[in-house]
Amino acid sequence: MEQYNILIVEDDKEIRDGIEIFLKSQNYQVFKAADGVEGLEIIENNEIHLAIVDIMMPRMDGVTMTLKLREHYEFPVIMLSAKSEETDKVIGLNIGADDYVTKPFTPLELMARVNSQLRRYTKFKNKSAGEEKNERVHVIGGIELNEDTVEVFVDGKPVRMTPIEFKILALLMKNPGRVYSAEEIYERVWNEKAINTDTIMVHVRNIRDKIEINPREPKYLKVVWGVGYKMEKQP
Question: What pTM does this model have?
């Protein structure tokens, strides 16, 4: 069984050490950093499978750190914040975080999120390693999505997607014209009952920014008001 390396980036030593205790009880290997600068150094020198990153930190905050790591790494990022405002959640998901936990949180809640994200990431990696042999390439207009290589091209140019964005886009592209509700997208992508569909709206906006010439007037990824989302069939 593979041992996962988890990075905790949190300036509060008590919280940092507390999370470490629970992660180690689940047999995870733990790395710790007090700010974003330390966190990036650890990522560069170790194989990290998931990062738990606080938003408010000295030297380099969690938002800046996540933006920087997303330039090169695709492992899941769970953001922590003492605030419960929606703006923090939207910022976190917009910059490439996969999940968001508000302080104070219970250890069980955080462990459930960690386990869930690692399960999804492992499946994503297995697909990218070519475990499924059949070539699965989907093309709609100028967008090409390859499930075997886990790549997306827009007008021939590669576009970087987070694992969650890739899964949402793949679901919609495999069924062009079909409308999916936010709940259905959540349940198919996360493989669990929908608990917070707000994240779908944020991920869809991120996908649009990457695949549309004008995200405000989308050609491909359309909203069907009051129903859900679909990929428009192209002539």
Answer: 0.57
